[in-house]
Amino acid sequence: MTGGGSLGVPAETTLTLGIETSCDDTGVALIRGERTVVAERLSSQIRDHARFGGVVPEFAARKHLENLLPLVDSVLRTARGWAISVTITFMPQRTSL
After folding, report:
1. How many CB atoms lie under 10 A from the CB of residue 60?
2. 34, 33, 41: which is closest to 82 by C-alpha?
């Protein structure tokens, strides 16, 4: 971003909380500015789905719900010490399942 971030916040202080819940992975990251990763966490469901021989969409959706809040909590705890005010959040608009 040039000339300032979203909502009038300078780009270098903008924090973006990214959430990815496609297929069998749940990922969360907190990014400062355009490229600095403050914290990131990933939870894979590969072992959970192995017994079915592939991804089961309903099961994957339940696992995402189970994993998401602990991952967000962990990312925000890791970023403790930052004056956290998340400005932008990105989430996929379509499912990949």
Report:
1. 22
2. 33
Q: Which pLDDT does position 33 carry in this prediction?
A: 85
* Domains recognised in the chain with CATH numbers: 7-87 (3.30.420.40)
Average pLDDT over residues 75-79: 87
Partners of residue 32 on adjacent β-strands:
15, 36
With 0-12 / 13-18 / 19 or more C-beta atoms within 10 angstroms meaning exposed / middle / buried, residue 92 is exposed
Supply the pTM of this predicted model. Answer: 0.72
Helix-strand-coil split of the chain, %, nearest 5? 35, 30, 35
Beta-sheet strand order (sheet of 15-20): 36-44, 25-32, 15-20, 86-90
* 3-state DSSP assignment of residue 45: coil
Above 70 in pLDDT, residue 34? yes
Give the position of tokens 């010490």: 81
CB 24 within 8 A of CB 45: yes
